[in-house]
Amino acid sequence: PACQSSQNTGNVIVTSGCSGSQKSTGGTHDIVDDIIYNVNNIIHYIVYNEADNIDNILNIVDDFLHIVDDFLNNVDNILNIVDDFLHIVDNILYDVYYQTDHIYNVDNIFNNPSTSTTSSTKPSTFTTSSTTSSIPATSSTTIASTTDIPFCDQIFLSFNRSLSSSILQDQLRAIQPFAMQCPEQLNAVVLQIASTNLQRNKTFVVEAGNISIAAGKIENGTQMHLAFDDNAASAVIPSDVADVIPIDSLAVLSIYAFNPYVTSSSTDPVQYTNLVSLSVTSANGSEVSVRNTSSSIEIGMDYNAVDGYEIECVWWDNSTRGWNREGCMTDTSSQPVKCLCSHLTSFSLQVTPKEVPPSEIAAKPFPWKWVGIGVGGFVFLLAVVIVMIAALTRRRWKRREEYDLGMQSTSHIIPADQIEVTEHLSTRIKRGRYQLADVVVVRQQSGDGLSEHLQQRVRHVNIVQYLGCYSDSVGDKYFVYNYVAGIELSKWITATEYDNDMAEHLVMQLANVMTYLIDQGVTDNIVTAEKVIIQPDNKGYVLKLWDLRSNVQRPELYVPPEKKLRTEAAQVWAFGILSMQIIDQTLYPREFYDDKEIPDSRVLYSVKQSLRKEPKARPKFADICRREAAPTSQTRAFSDQFENNYQQ
C-alpha cells in the first residue's frame, strides 16, 4: 500500500501501518500474513540488491569455461603432434629393420661364398642376348632369403626400377656400397631402369651420387647423342650405325664415379679413370651386342690430357676378366679426351707415366742460354724501372724547388692607399689609377685557381701586364693589371667588320700566347671569348689575354668530347672553337657548334685539325704556330673526310 513504509533494521525489514488504518494485532491469520509479508520483502531485497553480484559470478564461470575449452584445444593439438612424431618413428624403425635385413642377408652370403657365381658373354655382331636371367624382370620389395640365390643377385633382387626419380635416386645410393663387388649385376639393373622409364618418356636422365644414367630412344638413320648437364660423359652413335641397329632400340649411357674393375692401389704407376658404360638394349630390356661398326662410336671422357702421361682408351673384357685396347683409338687432341671405338661396353682411360730413358736425361744439356736470357731481361727491366723512378723523383723535386723559390720571392705589394678607384665595372672588377696610370683592379675569389706566383711568372705581349697586389681593410686581396683600352672579343666579333687576313692574324696571335702558356706549365686554362680583349693599334688589332683563372665554370661549347680539361688537347679544342668563331665572324651559342665549310689555307687547315674528335689526333700549339706549308691535295682530301666523319 502507498501509505506503508519500510524500515531496515539489519537483516529484517519491519513495516508499520499508516495512521488511520485498522490492523488486527491478534489472531493466527494476522501472524501468518505478517510472516508472508516479511518473507516477500526479504526476497525482493535480495533480488534487487544482489542481482549484480550473481551476474558477475556467472561471467566469471563463463570465462573459466572458455579457458577450459582453449586448454582442451591445446591438448588436442599436442596429441596430433605426438601422433605425427609416432608416425615418423615408425617409418625410421621400418627403414632400420629393412637395412638390418639387408645386412643379415649379406652376412649369410659372405659366410657361404660358394653360392656366388660369375657370368660371361660370348661376342657376337648385332645379336640379342638376355643379360637379366639372374634378375627377375618384375619388381619386388623383399630380398630372397634362400641360400641357393647368388650373393649379387640377392643384393639387387629387391630393386624397384619403375619408381619416381627421387625414390629411384635413394635406391641407387643404397646399392652403391655393393657395386664394387657386383659390376655385372649393377649394369643389368641400369639397363632395366632405362628400359622401364623409356616406356613412358622419349629420354630419361637420373643422377644419384656416384651413379648417373642417361638414356634415349634410337631413331634409325639418325645420329644419337647422349650427354649429362655437367659434361661428365657423353656418347655419339653415328647415323650409319644407328641405321642397322634393331628398331625401337634404346641407348643407355651410365657413368660411375668409381671403377669396380680396378683392384690396384693408388701407388701403382698405372691408374684408371672412372668407368663409363655405353649399351644398346631392345624394347624388352635385353642387351643388343654391337661390334665391328663401320664408323667409330664416340665416347667422351671427363678427363683432360696431362703432359708427362700416356693416355689410352681401354674396355673391360668379361671373357678374359681384364682390360683390352683392341678396337679403340684415343683422341687426345680434344679436351676432354674422347674414345673412338667400334663396339659398345664399359670403358675407362689407362693413365701411365711416360718413361724417359736415362741416356736422354744425361745427354740433355742444362739450358744455360735460356737462363742467361731470363736473367738479362730481368736486369734490363729492373734498370728501366730504376731510371723511370729516378726521373720522376727528380722532376717532382724540381717542381717543388721552383714552387718554393716562387713562394720565397718577394711579392710586389702595393700600398692600398696608392690605389684610387674611379669606376666599378662589376662586383669583382674596378677601374682606377696607380702612379698616374690607368689600371684594372680584380678581386681574388676563393678557389678560382689564380695565384700571384703564376702572374708574376708569365710575361708575354699578348697577356695583360700584372703590376702587383694589395689587401683592403676587410682583408680582401686584389690583383692590379695594366689597363688595356679595347673591347671584349665576344662583342668585337659581332660589332666589327674585318677580312680573312685579319682573322688569321688574330688566330695566330692566340696560338702564340697559348704555346707560351703551355711552355710555362699552364695546362688548365681553357680560353673563351670572354677571356680575350681586342686592342686596336696602328697595324690593326692586338689580342690580349687577361683572365688566367682555371677553376671557373666553362661554357659547354668549349668542353672537348673527352670531358678532360687539364690537358693540352683540351686547350687545343677550345682554341679551335674560338678560332672558328673569329673566322666565321659569328658568335656561336653556348652549347652549339656547326662544322661549316671554310676556305682552305694554312691557318684554317690547322684550326680544322684542332677540332678532331680524338685528343691524340689534334696538333700541338707549337705545330700550329710553325705553318710550314699550305695543305696539299692529299691533306685537303683528308680534311674533307674528317669533316664528314665529324658531322656524323
UniProtKB/TrEMBL annotation:
- List the keywords (alphabetical): Disulfide bond, Membrane, Receptor, Transmembrane, Transmembrane helix
Q: InterPro entries from the xrefs?
A: ADGR_G7 (IPR053066), GAIN_B (IPR057244), GAIN_dom_sf (IPR046338), GPS (IPR000203), Kinase-like_dom_sf (IPR011009), Prot_kinase_dom (IPR000719)
Query: Where does this chain mainly localize?
Result: membrane
Keyword Transmembrane included in the entry's annotation: yes
Q: Where are the transmembrane segments?
A: 370-392
* Any one cellular-component term (Gene Ontology): membrane
Q: Any idea where this protein resides?
A: Membrane
GO MF annotations for this entry? ATP binding; protein kinase activity
Please list the residue ranges annotated as the Protein kinase domain.
365-648
Every GAIN-B domain range: 202-357
What is the name listed in the Swiss-Prot or TrEMBL entry for this protein? G-protein coupled receptor 64
Organism equals Planoprotostelium fungivorum
- Source taxonomy lineage? Eukaryota, Amoebozoa, Evosea, Variosea, Cavosteliida
